[in-house]
Amino acid sequence: MQSFDKKIFVLILAIILHFPAIHLFAQTPKINFSKVTDNIYEIIGGKGARSTVFFGETGTLLIDTKGDEQDMRSILDRIGAMSDKPLLFLVNTHSDGDHNDGNLFIPESVTIISHENCRSELFMPRRDGGSTGWEAPERKPFLPEVCYRDSMSLYFGSERVELRHFGVGHTSGDTVVYFPEQKIAVLGDQYFELPTPYIHDYKGGSPSGNIVNLGRMLAELDVITFLSGHTEPVGRKEILFCIGAMKSRFEKMRESVVAGNTFEDIIKGKEGRELTLTTAIYHEVKAGK
Ligand SMILES: [Zn+2]
Which of 60, 62, 94, 178 has its CA 20 to 30 A from that of 155? Predict the structure, then answer.
């Protein structure tokens, strides 16, 4: 290619790469409040997982934050337009960034709550060994500042909301936010779309723990509708199906190990989330779970 042609080629390439229409496909959907009941909405779109907002008698509760400032500004504006009560609490369901990166844009007057282990996990390296960034001093005001171990109640006038921890699962510090009167629970990422639930064993999560804690949750909570970070709302049937699918993964793994397959045989051809989950189940089966 002659140098003049080359220049034109580079120029055209630069225009294509910078032309906004080309980036339309990469744009995240706009923030949308999806009504679940008269005072509970799922917040869909933006960068990050689904969030939930509850408008209580005396104030508002936000469950999880989105990934960037613009999303958070639009969420806070919308919350302000929908209620004249203050935003009192933010609950982080767990430590993954797609649920708490937006904490940085929450007013400092809001009390941030999480399970004790969720707060600890924020300081652990990521799966790839990189830093989460939460050790930065300027982030201190946006860390969870009230933490619990087993359960905790939040009151909004006469309305009670329960925070429950049922043991290790997706991570070691997952919170289920339970609205007893409305028979609704917000699970974070403890329920994940099949076929491959996401288990962060590198920060204390456990596939066998996921079976146990989802079972405990169904037994102890009177819930009809479960909201979660990356799926449409589901019912008890879907949670039971998810538990059953995880159990059958364990059975297959036990059979495979007993048949003499090595770890290398078992993970052959697997990648991404499937590789992560298979590896975690393998180690738990070898440990007798
Ligand atoms: Zn998530």
Answer: 94
Q: 198: CA distance to ligand 1 center in Å? A: 9
| Residue 100 CA, ligand 1 centroid: distance in Å | 10
Ligand 1 geometric centre to CA of 193 (Å): 11
Q: How far is the CA of 276 from the centre of ligand 1 (A)?
A: 15
Per residue in 125-184, pLDDT tens?
998 999 999 999 999 999 999 999 999 999 999 999 999 999 999 999 999 999 999 999
* C-alpha of residue 51 to centroid of ligand 1, in Å: 10
pLDDT at 196: 87
Domain of residue 80 covers 24-235
7 inside domain: no
How many angstroms separate the alpha carbon of residue 47 from the centre of ligand 1?
A: 11
Between the CA of 153 and the centroid of ligand 1 the distance, in Å, is 24
| CATH number assigned to the domain comprising residue 176 | 3.60.15.10
Q: What spacing in Å lies between the alpha carbon of 50 and ligand 1's midpoint?
A: 8
**What is residue 269's DSSP assignment?**
T
Q: Indicate whether 260 belongs to any domain.
A: no
Residue type, 187: L
The number of distinct structural domains making up the chain is 1
pTM, to two decimals? 0.89
- 148 within a domain of the structure (yes/no): yes
Q: Is residue 156 part of a domain?
A: yes
| Distance (Å, whole) CA 102 – CA 97 | 8
Residue 273 Cα, ligand 1 centroid: separation in angstroms?
13
Helix/strand/coil for 151: strand
Token pair listed for 167: 């043991």
Ligand 1 centre distance from Cα of residue 192 (Å) = 9
The overall average pLDDT reported for the chain is 92
Q: What secondary structure does DSSP assign to 93-131, as a single string?
A: SSS-HHHHGGGGGS-TTSEEEEEHHHHHHTTS--TTS--
